[in-house]
């Protein structure tokens, strides 16, 4: 029997537009939500801490019209901020529920039933909340759609952006998708006419965004010859010193407060090399990369854990080591020596800070673990840009800009941001100009020219070489399908890539590329081929993934 539908509380009154007046189309968007129209917006949020309140306003506006809302954010810290904003707008927590994994089965099921029976209109949560059975769905909201936490790593690999977009289309609901950055996928939806851009006014953006500089620019190179090679050039140190203690000459308006230092890697020395020939240090047992876990610790293997106390370079015989990749722990140690009277706090890994006070301090954080500072950060240093931009990934530049913008958005409008990367790179220029839309449009145009997603649909078939060849050969692919590969693929095991079963057949991956108009036909063909293999009970597993997030 279907559950009885509970009568929800009377619809709340429509809230004031608040900070949505900073967007030229903001009040029009709110009026469309109040009228129940299925408007869809690609939101480029203005920098600053106000995005949870803006989400709460659109949710309350939709709820005031008697419609339901689903809000999906990347992690629990973002959810806590949205929860507080919804409570403030609704003047209590009775108008919404939050769905998270740490609630426990009983409480989570109780809230799920309340949503299913229509007792509440607004649901906020992390990835799994995209399936929340909200009654009379009127709006779906997705914050920071480029975050990989929105992609389910288990079959059938649903992505929150795709699921919420389909729900909005099928229910005739409105959609608000965006963040500080803009993904190529969202830009594709704008280009197709599915969504309209929602951006702030240029004058407001200039007032809200911090001042961004690239360390090795021409002016700095004339002042500091080591600006191109030093990991912490003088510009970064001067900016941090001014933000922590103020300018004794009073020549800058930079307010005193905490300084955020974003480091791409966790640990101490994430990768080391021979000091003489620069060859990466490898384990003598499994040939895995070596790392140093802490000060005065013996190097150890990242794959098998074996210690390398008597390591010697296989190429030149030297036993001296140098750092290749410096982690957050070593960075905190170095900055602690440079600023001995300033507190140093770290955020990342198993210890992630949610908030930090407004007092001067150095906050060392990995991407995605940056805490929110009361009144904002006085400055931010974005270190080791090469480590992010140099990753062998199709999305390296897009993901790097997203991480930079998320960190820079935590800085006060009067603050300074220093990014340590080549100033001429498109991602750096987009950060300096705070132009995520232009960067995303350029990224989409380049992918369309080269035939990469999301300009085309692509499927990845991974498994043992024989099984992949059989699967691709038996699938009734559309005529315009193009098969790339197969090529060797890495399967991670406890001792490193391809080491889970040493005697197993080598793994391979084949990519199937097709125009977007034939995407549904490709999905049907792959589904039929996978169903046939399952019916035959073929032993070799084959992983089939449509539009994989990473195409290295």
Structure description:
- Mean pLDDT is 86; it is low at 492-500.
- This protein is globular.
- The protein has 552 residues and is of the alpha/beta class.
- 32% of the residues lie in helices and 21% in strands.
- A seven-stranded parallel sheet has the order 3-4-2-5-6-1-7, sandwiched between helices. Strands 8-19-18-9-16-14 form a six-stranded parallel sheet, sandwiched between helices. It has a four-stranded antiparallel sheet with strand order 21-24-20-25, with helices on one face.
- Helix 2 (51-64) packs across helix 3, helix 6 (184-191) packs across helix 14 and helix 12 (396-408) runs parallel beside helix 13 (426-433).
- The longest helix has 18 residues, at 519-536.
- 42% of the residues are buried.
- The two termini are 49 Å apart.
């Amino acid at each position: 029997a279907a559950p009885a539908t509970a009568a929800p509380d009377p619809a709340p009154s429509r809230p004031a537009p608040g900070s949505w007046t900073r967007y030229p189309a903001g009040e029009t968007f709110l009026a469309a939500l109040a009228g129940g129209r299925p408007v869809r917006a690609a939101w480029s949020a203005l920098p600053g801490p106000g995005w949870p309140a803006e989400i709460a306003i659109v949710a309350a506006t939709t709820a005031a019209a008697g419609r339901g809302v689903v809000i999906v954010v990347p992690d629990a810290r973002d959810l806590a901020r949205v929860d507080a904003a919804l409570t403030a707008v609704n003047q209590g927590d009775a108008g919404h529920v939050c769905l998270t994994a740490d609630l426990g089965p009983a409480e989570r099921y109780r809230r799920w039933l309340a949503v299913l029976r229509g007792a509440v209109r607004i649901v906020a949560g992390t990835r799994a909340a995209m399936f929340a059975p909200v009654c009379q769905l009127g709006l779906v909201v997705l914050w920071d759609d480029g975050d990989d936490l929105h992609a389910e790593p288990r079959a059938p690999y649903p992505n929150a952006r795709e699921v919420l977009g389909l729900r909005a289309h099928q229910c005739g609901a409105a959609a608000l998708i965006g963040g500080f950055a803009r993904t190529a996928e969202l830009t594709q939806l704008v280009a197709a006419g599915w969504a309209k851009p929602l951006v702030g006014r240029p004058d407001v953006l200039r007032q809200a965004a911090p001042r961004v500089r690239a360390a090795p620019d021409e002016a700095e190179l004339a002042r500091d010859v080591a600006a191109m090679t030093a990991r912490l050039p003088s510009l970064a140190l001067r900016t941090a010193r001014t933000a922590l203690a103020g300018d004794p000459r009073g020549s800058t308006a930079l307010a005193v407060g905490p300084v955020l230092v974003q480091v791409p890697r966790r640990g101490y020395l994430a990768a080391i090399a021979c000091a003489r020939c620069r060859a990466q240090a490898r384990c003598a047992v499994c040939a895995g990369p070596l790392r140093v876990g802490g000060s005065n610790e013996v190097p150890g293997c990242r794959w098998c854990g074996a210690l390398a106390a008597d390591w010697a370079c296989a190429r030149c015989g030297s036993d001296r080591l140098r750092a290749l990749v410096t982690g957050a722990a070593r960075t905190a140690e170095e900055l602690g020596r440079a600023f001995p009277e300033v507190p140093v706090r770290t955020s990342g890994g198993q210890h992630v800070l949610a908030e930090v006070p407004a007092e001067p301090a150095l906050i060392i954080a990995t991407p995605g673990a940056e805490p929110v500072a009361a009144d904002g950060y006085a400055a931010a240093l974005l270190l080791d840009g090469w480590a992010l931009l140099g990753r062998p990934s199709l999305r390296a530049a897009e993901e790097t800009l997203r991480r930079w913008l998320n960190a820079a958005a935590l800085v006060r409008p009067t603050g300074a941001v220093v990014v340590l990367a080549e100033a001429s790179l498109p991602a750096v220029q987009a950060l300096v100009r705070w132009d995520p839309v232009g960067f995303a449009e350029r990224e989409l145009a380049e992918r369309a020219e080269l035939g990469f997603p999301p300009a085309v649909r692509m499927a990845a078939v991974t498994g043992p070489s024989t099984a992949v060849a059989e699967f691709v050969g038996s699938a009734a692919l559309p005529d315009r399908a193009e098969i790339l590969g197969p090529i060797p693929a890495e399967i991670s095991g406890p001792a490193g890539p391809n080491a889970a079963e040493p005697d197993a057949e080598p793994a391979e991956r084949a990519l199937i590329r097709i125009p977007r108009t034939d995407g549904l036909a490709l999905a049907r063909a792959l589904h039929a081929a996978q169903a046939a293999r399952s019916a035959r009970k073929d032993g070799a597993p084959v992983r089939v993934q449509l539009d994989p997030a990473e195409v290295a």
